[in-house]
Design a protein that fits this description.
The protein has 7 helices and 13 strands. It is α+β, with helices and mostly antiparallel strands and 225 residues long. The two termini are 34 Å apart.
């Protein structure tokens, strides 16, 4: 779960002397929200967001091509970029990236090597791609949510019970239960129900565990209000 496995490697960048007009055109045609700015050595020196470009553009209600007291065509990436942006490395865990993006409301973070050279960018879309893989949703199959005591043992025991019932699972992840301190929710993506159907599996599990819901064919059935 490292950035190197999920980052976008082919990054569209700006040079220090790239004009804002050119950057705006690239942003429009490529649907890009932010550009790393690099020097001639490939070292990251700043970042330009779509908001930076919009703020630099003159209002359509004002005559002429003036911005910041000068010609817009002379305005460069170096003039509007954020210097020393927050970065991550290829070995940064992807969940830490998600936390940083959420806290700072960023759309992405440049990825640099030990020498400060740009090697990629990790965006919100990359984090979503990771999440879809981690939850197994791309593979399909039903998912079961179970509330367990937040201590060692219950999860392993439940998974062993599923195996004993002939149930195979593709993905398992857990998170603290926001409504019940001291408990964790386990989300199990089932790849093979064995001799069960969903109704019989739910009935079997309800005798031993607190089931919260299950999802089958995109439909969620709540089992605890």
């Amino acid at each position: 779960m490292l950035v190197r496995d999920w980052m976008t490697k082919n990054v569209i960048t700006l040079g220090l002397k790239t004009t804002v007009v050119d950057a705006a055109e690239i942003m429009r045609t490529k649907k890009i929200r932010q550009f790393p700015v690099i020097d001639v050595n490939g070292t990251l020196v700043g970042i330009v967001s779509d908001r930076d470009i919009r703020d630099a553009m003159p209002s359509k209600y004002l005559p002429g091509d003036a911005a910041n007291g000068g010609s817009l065509s002379s305005l460069r990436a170096a003039d509007i970029m954020t210097s020393e942006p927050l970065t991550v490395t290829p070995l940064t865990p992807i969940d830490l990236v998600a936390n940083t993006l959420q806290r700072h409301k960023f759309g992405g973070l440049p990825v640099v090597d030990e020498a400060g050279r740009l090697v990629g960018i990790v965006t919100v879309a990359d984090v979503f791609r990771f999440l879809c893989t981690a939850t197994g949703v791309q593979r399909g199959g039903p998912q079961i949510a179970v509330r367990l005591d937040a201590k060692p043992g219950p999860l392993a025991a439940m998974l062993q019970f599923l195996r004993s019932e002939g149930v195979r699972f593709a993905n398992v992840f857990t998170s603290p239960d926001p409504a019940a301190p001291g408990f964790r929710n386990a989300y199990v993506r089932v790849s093979d129900l064995g001799e069960h159907n969903m109704d019989s599996l739910v009935a079997t599990l309800k005798g031993k565990y607190t089931l919260l819901f299950f999802v089958e064919d995109g439909r969620t059935t709540l089992l605890e209000s």
